[in-house]
Design brief:
By secondary structure, this protein is an alpha/beta fold. The chain is built from 8 helices and 6 strands. The chain has a 6-stranded parallel β-sheet with strand order 3-2-1-4-5-6, with helices on both faces.
Length: 245
């Protein structure tokens, strides 16, 4: 099978082309946005304010913001809105650009407004898929992935949500995928994993024996190893082509 997108405008996709019984989803960059991770999105908003800002300048600060949040005792109780607010506050106050000063609220609102729209679209897709597949979620998060799924009416579609902060392992570590396979009680090859990050999602799921569904979105993404990609999708809605609705 080709590793290109299984969606085509002119050639219908065969039903369930990967032979799946279950589909497991990433959260950030997958359910809340089409194929772009949180730090990349925050960089994009920051660049709108300061065109001289580079990814090399921004990424260490964003990673430090995430690490700082991990160390905060209430991190696992924060809503997605509160989490984004704290990350943005850290980035703005880190001093990488004077043009970001005073922009915490606007950057946070920008991020969240886009997320809300895509979460609504994801809910529609998940509702359709839930009639045909067992489903779950695995997220590298701060301990609050289940609460976010509940907040946005997604949790009802998932048999369970596995959060890296809760289990102590982050994707692509095999040990975060194995509990999902065990809980589903299915052969790993009959479980698909949908995620936007090559290393965390594609490499991680394939190392566990699952089928990798790489959510590339509209951006061109370089692929370090084509053999690890079972298929690409540009839109989450492409998964609905796999079922009879």
């Amino acid at each position: 099978m080709s590793h290109e997108s299984l969606h085509s405008e002119t050639h219908p996709v065969e039903p369930n082309p990967l032979g799946l019984s279950a589909i497991v989803f990433d959260f950030g960059g997958t359910l809340d946005f089409p194929g772009i991770a949180w730090y990349e999105r925050l960089f994009g908003y920051s660049r709108q304010l300061d065109r001289e800002l580079t990814w090399e300048m921004f990424l260490p600060v964003a990673c430090n913001a995430g690490d700082s949040l991990t160390e905060q005792p209430d991190a696992g109780n924060l809503s997605m809105e509160e989490t984004v607010q704290r990350l943005v506050e850290f980035i703005v106050t880190a001093g990488i650009s004077p043009r970001l000063q005073g922009q915490t609220d606007s950057m946070t609102k920008w991020f969240l407004d886009e997320s809300y729209a895509h979460l609504e679209e994801s809910r529609v897709v998940l509702e359709t898929l839930s009639r045909h597949f067992r489903m779950a979620c695995i997220s590298n998060n701060w301990g609050n992935a289940l609460g976010w799924c509940e907040d946005y009416d997604l949790a009802g579609f998932f048999e369970f949500v596995i959060d890296s902060a809760a289990v102590g392992f982050r994707k692509p570590d095999l040990r975060i995928f194995q509990p999902a396979i065990e809980r589903l009680g299915l052969p790993a090859a009959n479980i698909g994993y949908v995620g936007d990050q090559f290393k965390a999602d594609v490499v991680g799921s394939k190392s566990a024996g699952m089928k990798s569904i790489w959510y590339v979105g509209e951006r061109e993404k370089s692929c370090p190893d084509e053999s690890l990609v079972d298929c690409r999708i540009r839109h989450l809605s492409e998964l609905r082509d796999w079922v009879s609705v």
